[in-house]
């Protein structure tokens, strides 16, 4: 097996960066990389494992102090990722139709890139669960550990569904323009009204579609020049911020933009209107700095760093909580080393840089090993479109269940095998093969 190291990875990234066509909007790639790195850092900072009398409590800083909830307004940047996804998918789908590529060919490239990297994670956690069962680890520890580690895959479950619908959403954009965004935004507002005013809670789950598709439509708008860059884009930020403050201060929505353990209502599970408003705020700010950022990204070093992160972006996103969870488990086995500091105390915050450094070292190791699956390819003709769509639905369903409840259960060898096999079966049906090298580079 070829040995991977950081210098060689940087050299390869520099080579790819040097071949970047002048027409590429590098700011799209930068925002994608930045949003994922912010999410990773936010997750690591929010984690508050605490050992008292030999017992481990896996808490969140959002439970202990109020100000991290306000900080979540900047750390919850998933809207940026869906926004960038809309831009990227618009470019890619338009190019595919121009070049005469079929929907099946286009979707194949997208699914390979999205679903391929998650399969090694599922296999790894299945093996960890089996080993834990055989050596007598308490079943609830496997369940909680895997659940915490698989929180990131909720995003993938939603985003794969958004990608499958690109031909429809792009056609709606071409025909109706910004109306296609406002209709979805209005649907999200009505959904929230039913959720709170009518106590019709089950309807809240529809906002996974309304809100994230709405943000995705704004990505099309950006690509086609319908969203202005520079100071004029601050109107989106100002409008979103004003309404968001009103909803939080006067309405029923909580302060935090991420779920807080113990709170009855979450702005993100399922998503509420504040997530769409937060997206407007962040998109307005992002567009404000587009011009200077694009000039900065013409420099070799920042652009190479951007290419490097994007080259393994799904890997580091999917594995970052596994890295931190395993480090916490190791610390627990070493007598609770570093886990006895009270969350929120001065000593606890002073120790965060060290913990983040250890998490990062573990994540780099995972990225160097599993990053090779990032560019997997089908190794042959794409599967029929219907197979890919059905396979994507199975993948999304399995990932959603895993994100909610983890991998552990009362089944054979202590696993919930049906939720493990569901995404694997879906990937196989769709023709996703992370072991084969991709022959084409998707946008």
Which key terms come to mind for this protein?
443 residues, mainly alpha, two-stranded antiparallel sheet, two-stranded antiparallel ribbon, 67% helix, globular, disordered C terminus
Would you give an account of this structure?
This protein has 443 residues and is mainly α. The chain has a domain at 6-174 and 299-437. It is built from 21 helices and 4 strands. The protein has helices at 6-18, 26-46, 61-64, 67-75, 78-98, 103-115, 118-134, 139-149, 153-164, 166-176, 179-196, 207-223, 234-250, 273-288, 290-296, 300-311, 313-333, 346-350, 352-370, 385-405, 417-430; strands at 47-52, 55-60, 376-377, 436-437. Strands 1-2 form a two-stranded antiparallel ribbon. The chain has a two-stranded antiparallel ribbon with strand order 3-4. Helix 2 (26-46) runs antiparallel to helix 5, helix 8 (139-149) runs antiparallel to helix 17 and helix 9 packs antiparallel against helix 20.
Helix content: 55-70%
Percentage of β-strand residues: under 5%
In terms of structural class, how would the helical and strand content be classed? mainly alpha
Number of strands: 4
Poorly predicted residue ranges: 438-443
User: What kind of sheet is the major sheet?
Assistant: 2 strands, antiparallel
How many helices?
21
Major beta sheet, strand line-up: 1-2
Distance between the termini: 29 Å
Order of helices and strands: HHEEHHHHHHHHHHHHHHHHHEHHE
Rg, Cα atoms, Å: 22 Å
| Morphology | globular
Query: On the 0-100 scale, what is the average pLDDT?
Result: 90
């Amino acid at each position: 097996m070829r040995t991977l190291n950081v210098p060689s990875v940087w050299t390869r990234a520099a080579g790819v960066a040097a071949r970047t066509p002048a027409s590429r909007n590098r700011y799209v790639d930068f925002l994608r990389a930045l949003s994922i790195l912010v999410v990773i850092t936010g997750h690591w900072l929010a984690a508050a494992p605490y050992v008292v009398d030999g017992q481990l409590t896996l808490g969140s800083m959002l439970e202990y102090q109020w100000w991290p909830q306000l900080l979540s307004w900047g750390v919850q940047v998933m809207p940026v990722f869906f926004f960038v996804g809309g831009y990227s998918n618009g470019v890619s789908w338009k190019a595919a139709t121009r070049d005469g590529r079929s929907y099946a060919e286009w979707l194949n490239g997208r699914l390979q890139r999205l679903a391929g990297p998650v399969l090694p994670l599922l296999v790894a956690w299945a093996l960890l669960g089996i080993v834990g069962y055989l050596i007598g680890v308490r079943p609830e520890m496997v369940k909680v550990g895997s659940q915490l580690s698989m929180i990131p895959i909720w995003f993938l479950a939603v985003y794969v569904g958004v990608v499958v619908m690109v031909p429809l959403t792009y056609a709606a954009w071409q025909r109706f323009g910004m109306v296609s965004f406002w209709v979805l935004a209005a649907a999200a507002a009505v959904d929230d009204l039913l959720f709170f005013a009518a106590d019709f809670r089950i309807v809240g789950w529809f906002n996974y579609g309304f809100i994230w598709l709405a943000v995705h439509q704004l990505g099309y708008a950006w690509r086609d020049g319908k969203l202005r860059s520079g100071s004029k884009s601050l109107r989106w930020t100002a409008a979103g911020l004003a309404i968001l403050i009103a909803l939080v201060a006067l309405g029923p929505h909580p302060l935090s933009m991420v779920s807080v353990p113990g709170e009855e209502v979450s702005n993100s599970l399922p998503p509420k209107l504040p997530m769409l408003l937060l997206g407007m705020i962040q998109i307005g700010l992002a567009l404000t700095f587009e011009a200077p950022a694009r000039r900065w990204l013409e420099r070799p070093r920042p652009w190479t760093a951007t290419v490097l992160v994007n080259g393994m972006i799904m890997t580091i996103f999917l594995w970052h909580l596994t890295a931190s969870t395993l480090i916490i488990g190791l610390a627990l086995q070493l007598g609770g080393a570093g886990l006895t500091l009270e969350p929120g105390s001065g000593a606890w915050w002073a120790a965060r840089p060290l913990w983040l450094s250890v998490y990062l070292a573990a994540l780099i190791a995972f990225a160097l090993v599993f990053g090779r699956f990032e560019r997997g390819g089908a190794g042959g003709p794409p599967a029929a479109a219907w197979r890919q769509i059905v396979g994507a639905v199975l993948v999304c369903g399995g990932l959603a269940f895993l994100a909610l409840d983890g991998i552990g259960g009362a089944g054979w060898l202590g696993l919930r095998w049906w939720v493990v096999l569901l995404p694997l079966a879906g990937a196989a049906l769709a023709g996703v093969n992370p072991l084969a090298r991709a022959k084409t580079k998707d946008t």
